[in-house]
Amino acid sequence: MNTFTSDSPTQASGRFSRRAYLAWNLLLGIIFTLIAVVVGLLIPGAQNALTEGAMSTPLMIIFFIMYAIVIYYSVIFLIRRLHDRDHSGWLALLILVPVVNILFALYVLFAPGNSGSNSFGQPRPTKGWETVLAVLYIVVFIVGILAAIMIPSYQNYVIRSQQTTIQQQ
Questions:
Q1: DSSP per-residue string spanning the chain
Q2: Cβ atoms 133, 27 nearer than 8 A
Q3: How many distinct structural domains can be found in the chain?
Q4: In angstroms, rounded to a whole number, what is the distance separating the alpha carbons of residues 142 and 44?
Q5: How far is it between the farthest Cα atoms of the chain?
Q6: In a domain, 95, yes or no
Q7: Is 66 exposed, middle or buried (0-12, 13-18, 19+ CB in 10 A)?
Q8: 76 located within any domain
Q9: In degrees to the nearest 10, what's the CA dihedral of 71, 123, 22, 127?
């Protein structure tokens, strides 16, 4: 019988299942996006940065800090996922190697974790909301890929259709 552990998901020690890994990464992305929108609305000149391509120094500092926090927690979540596979957190450095990082990310996403205890402790139970967010992450990912393929194809179709209509007149 498996016994589960309850630990803080924001610390590197511990384990993340595949669903928890996806859920916490999506949650991190949502939080980052919301903060970026709020900062963009509250800081004077942020709207001009989008249109003119020039960002003020305070805005750059704020976004640098935000990106550093996102990278930090992304690495924490990756280390926890590696712990679930009974691998050292140092393997997370593979994410920095071009081409290898793609294969490594697929491995982290699809390889099942150890069902029982391993050298990094007991498995952490996946909460219901984590499962919901993981499924949402997968759906948004698939819809995003389909949209990236279909929208340019449709635009190309519309352009060709308009050209044909013009030629027929």
A1: --------TTSSSS---HHHHHHHHHHHHHHHHHHHHHHHHHSTTHHHHHHHS---HHHHHHHHHHHHHHHHHHHHHHHHHHHHTT--GGGGGGGGSTTHHHHHHHHHHHSPPPSS-BTTBSPPPPPHHHHHHHHHHHHHHHHHHHHHHHHHHHHHHHHHHHHHHHHH-
A2: yes
A3: 1
A4: 36
A5: 76
A6: yes
A7: middle
A8: yes
A9: -120
Closest by Cα among 111, 107, 112, 113 to 94: 107
Structure-block tokens of residue 119: 């050298």
Q: Are the C-beta atoms of residues 16 and 124 closer than 8 Å to each other?
A: yes
- The residue among 86, 76, 142, 138 whose CA lies nearest residue 112 is 86
- How many CA atoms, within 13 angstroms, populate the side-chain half-sphere of residue 155? 6
Tokens for 7? 């630990």
Return d(Cα 155, Cα 59) in angstroms, integer: 35
Residue 25 belongs to a domain: yes
Under-70 pLDDT residues of the chain: 1-6, 44-55
Contact assessment for residue 123 and residue 17, using Cβ atoms and an 8 Å cutoff: yes
Copy the structure tokens of residue 112. 């099942």
Q: Give me the domain span that covers residue 160.
A: 18-168
Residue 2 included in any domain: no
